[in-house]
Design goal:
This protein has one helix at residues 108-112, and strands spanning 3-7, 10-13, 18-25, 32-39, 46-51, 58-60, 68-73, 78-83, 92-100, 119-120, 124-129. It is mainly beta and 130 residues long. The longest helix is centred in the last third of the chain and has 5 residues, at 108-112. It is globular, with a radius of gyration of 14 Å. The N and C termini lie far apart (40 Å).
Length: 130
């Protein structure tokens, strides 16, 4: 069983950058593929990015491609989300999620569905002002 804790959220202005971190404990982190999701008030939880257990493969949602980058450091049991060129529409609570199985699913639907992830952090708020 893995436990996840997010950090790094805050209030920034449009165009700024922010780095979120997800720190894991309780299990061998490299055995888990890990993703970031976000949820704005009144909206469903939205997929942002996913990274394989080794860190060699990743996949980003079209809405953040070219601006956000997911990475991981298994020696530190952490996954990061570097967010550049932030927009007001990026405002949301950002969640880290992990699922046992290091390899990314072939299906993008399985990568992107919150239902495919068993373990979740408590979330960290990101607010981007215009």
């Amino acid at each position: 069983q893995v436990q996840l804790v997010e950090s790094g959220g805050g209030l920034v202005q449009a165009g700024d950058s922010l780095r979120l971190s997800c720190t894991a404990s309780g299990s061998t982190f490299s055995n888990y593929r890990t993703a970031w999701f976000r949820q704005a008030p009144g909206n469903e939880r939205e997929f942002v990015a996913i990274i394989s257990g080794s860190g060699r493969s990743s996949f980003h949602a079209d809405s953040v491609k070219g601006r956000f980058t997911i990475s991981r450091d298994n020696a530190e049991n952490s996954v990061s989300l570097k967010m550049n060129s932030l927009k007001p529409e990026d405002t949301a609570v950002y969640y880290c999620a992990a699922q046992l199985g290091a390899v990314l699913p072939a299906s993008s639907r399985n990568r992107m569905s919150p239902n495919q992830y068993q373990h979740w952090g408590q979330g960290t708020q990101v607010t981007v002002s215009s």
